[in-house]
């Protein structure tokens, strides 16, 4: 992918599609974002020059215009960054907002932790006990989604999948008019378009990475909406958990969704590759540690390095980082989205389903390696 660099406004430089009606009176968080935008001299923004193939498929299904001039937003350095919001903080972060966070699973909990320092946070989870660590750290616990969003200036969701979004948010008309809704849930592009059509304040902001990068503020994040101001607000919030070089703003929720699926496709198919490499090497009598060492100079090194500790027994698949159930669900969203067969994805799904049948669905997806000879 060819990239070029050019100085541009932080988090901006997107053409909003015509014919779209936005709120006449922005909410206070939007006003904060509008008031704090500025051009930072010398600020670098990397622009992929060619997303034509990906955009063509999405555009064939989407009513919205897909602009291929997406940008990877690299926030300005702490010395150049303006304070955002009222009250402002010395570290340049947006502060003092009332935020509702729905879904405190493994990833949701890590994201929500970043909000506790500067914001008034109310959390909700279907299983309340899983929200207790955040409550212990200072968050308020709501007994329902409706109670959680009452009075919120921003609503963030981190649920398991699109069906959960429909059940908890769309079917209940949960989002108050004008309140920005930032959804980090992994969904299909079609579902993202559905949610954006249902709620005009919808911003899709899925994350790329596991729990370690989430804790360290090093995740990749796609932020998709045609609304410049809501995108600015969402990207500012996402800076708390995003790597500064991996915060990517795009012009639609659907484009953000396909970006996340592409990232997880890489996980699924390279996991299948490592599994087959283990089978191949073991067929010649090689020990798993020898096989892993030999993979160091191959294209499978990333997956081998990430999941090697599980394979060698240094880590346990419970609780792990990214579950079999979650990656299997995402892989099935890939199949649903594609208009051609995805045989490598299909092979990975078969592996995940084998682990689910063995009762390992809620364990790390490295279960496909750990229990490879026990099926």
TrEMBL record:
The keyword Oxidoreductase applies. It is an enzyme of class 1 (oxidoreductase). Its EC number is 1.1.1.31. It comes from the Bacteria. Residues 259-368 form the 3-hydroxyisobutyrate dehydrogenase-like NAD-binding domain. Keywords: Oxidoreductase. Pfam families: NAD_binding_11, NAD_binding_2. Residues 66-77 have a biased composition (Polar residues). The keyword Oxidoreductase applies. One of its GO terms (molecular function) is NADP binding. Residues 44-92 are annotated as: Disordered. Residues 98-234 form the 6-phosphogluconate dehydrogenase NADP-binding domain. This is 6-phosphogluconate dehydrogenase NAD-binding domain-containing protein. It comes from Corynebacterium aurimucosum (strain ATCC 700975 / DSM 44827 / CIP 107346 / CN-1) (Corynebacterium nigricans).
């Amino acid at each position: 992918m060819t990239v070029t660099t050019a100085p541009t406004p932080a988090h901006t430089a997107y053409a909003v599609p015509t014919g779209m009606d936005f709120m006449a009176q922005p909410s206070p968080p939007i006003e904060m974002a509008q008031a704090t935008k500025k051009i930072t001299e010398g600020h670098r923004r990397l622009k992929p020059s060619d997303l034509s193939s990906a955009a063509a498929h999405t555009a064939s299904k989407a009513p919205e215009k897909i602009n291929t001039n997406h940008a990877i937003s690299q926030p300005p350095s702490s010395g150049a960054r303006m304070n955002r919001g009222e009250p402002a903080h010395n570290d340049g972060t947006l502060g003092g907002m009332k935020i509702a966070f729905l879904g405190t699973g493994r990833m949701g909990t890590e994201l929500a932790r970043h909000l506790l320092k500067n914001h008034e946070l109310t959390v909700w989870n279907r299983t309340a006990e899983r929200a207790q660590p955040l409550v212990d750290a200072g968050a308020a616990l709501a007994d329902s989604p409706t109670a959680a969003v009452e009075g919120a200036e921003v609503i963030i969701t981190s649920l398991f999948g699109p069906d959960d979004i429909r059940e908890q948010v769309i079917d209940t008309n949960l989002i108050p008019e004008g309140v920005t809704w930032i959804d980090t849930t992994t969904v299909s592009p079609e579902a993202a378009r559905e949610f954006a059509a249902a709620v005009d304040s919808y911003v899709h902001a899925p994350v790329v990475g596991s729990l370690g990068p989430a804790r360290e503020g090093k995740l990749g994040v796609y932020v998709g909406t045609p609304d410049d101001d809501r995108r600015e607000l969402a990207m500012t919030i996402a800076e708390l958990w995003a790597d500064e070089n991996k915060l990517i703003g795009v012009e639609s929720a659907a484009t953000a969704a396909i970006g996340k699926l592409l990232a997880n496709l890489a996980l699924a198919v390279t996991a299948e590759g490592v599994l087959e490499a283990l089978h191949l090497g073991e067929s010649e009598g090689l020990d798993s540690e020898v096989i892993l060492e030999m993979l160091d100079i191959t294209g499978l090194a990333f997956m081998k390095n990430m999941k090697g500790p599980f394979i060698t027994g240094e880590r346990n698949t419970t609780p792990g980082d990214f579950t079999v159930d979650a990656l299997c669900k995402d892989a099935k969203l890939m199949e649903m989205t594609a208009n051609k067969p995805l045989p490598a994805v299909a092979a990975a799904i078969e592996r995940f389903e084998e682990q689910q049948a063995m009762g390992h669905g809620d364990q790390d997806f490295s279960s496909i390696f750990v229990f490879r000879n026990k099926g």
